[in-house]
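ok so heres the complex, two chains, lmk if somethin looks off
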Amino acid sequence: MGWALALHGGAGDVPRTLPPELREPRLATLRRCLDLGTAALRDGRAALDVVELVVRPPSPSPTPRSPASPGGAARVHVRPGPTPTGLLTVCGDVACRCGSWRTARTSTPAGAPCSPPTAPSRWRRASWRAPPCAAAPSRASPPSPTPSRSPGSSWRGRRTSTSPSTAPRPSPGTRYAVRGCALVNRDVMRACSSIGVETKDPSHFITEHNIERLRQAKEANRVQIDYTQPLKGQQTPQETPAPIPTDDNSQTG
Amino acid sequence: TVGCVAVDAAGNLATATSTGGLVNKMAGRIGDTPVVGAGTYANALCAVSATGKGEEIIRHTVARDVAALMEHRGLPLRDAAARVVAGAPRGTVGLVAVSRGGEVCMAHNTTAMFRACATEAGHAEVGIW
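and the predicted structre for the whole thing:
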């Protein structure tokens, strides 16, 4: 039936009363992503290239779209911290998978070792124990001051840059606990720099919108989440779903 | 958050999921969970990317279940996806999936899911609710 593409931008209780000024940018971003992916498929690019292209932001977008979008509402959390703009956390873990890897188990096991031959033995062991994903690519504090712009690319770059022939061979009898790798935090940053993934200064991810949400959270002394009910007297417009019942911690944790 | 699945003209399947997941969640909470087998899975039959409440996606191994129903029950993509989404608690899961034959499915049991799809045959869709 030819090529096909589908993408999502998150699911949940998005109120039907979402005002047009919030709804239209999100629909426009979905259309832009769809056009990006379909153009690549029309050009005959491989499926893995296309999915990576779509989850990477082609240009700064004001709406939540990918972990690396500036100010992505669900991913960039600015918390009170040592700097005036607070402590930046980009929850940018991502995983890619190609259908044929499963069939290629014998030559390139799914979740093949992603540690470079020169990795310290401690890191190598760590890389054996977790599923293939890259997580928390940034902390706005030394030694990894510059966040990865695209966790997906960093992971894929790492995975493809290490061929089985160069990967360290475990000594006979070594048991595989779980085949895969997890690059977290500082390891992701180290991997990014070793394979030249584009990184950005933390300020790239912080927008006025984030800072305003932090200010409101501090003022109200309560958790501020994407669609929080405006407090009495607050001026900023909010997406206004029903307040989260206090006994339901399914969304606030 | 964003997740994408694709099948190219040669029939190769791939998926990518970045966490973020359920809108309106607290910092540090599990998002879609891009763990392969839970929120992300692809094999020779289909590619799936799930989004929603990470804990439920992990508990129900959503993405792998869709592929397993196709593999072992012979269900078409749409039926397999509908069965998995219906089996998860209401309001917790949404997924997009494509099959090797170019079939597209976007199922969710949440109020909304930001979604879009297109096929070579000319079908295209963009939606929220």
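quick notes: Chain B touches chain A through 78 residues (CB under 8 Å). thats all i got rn
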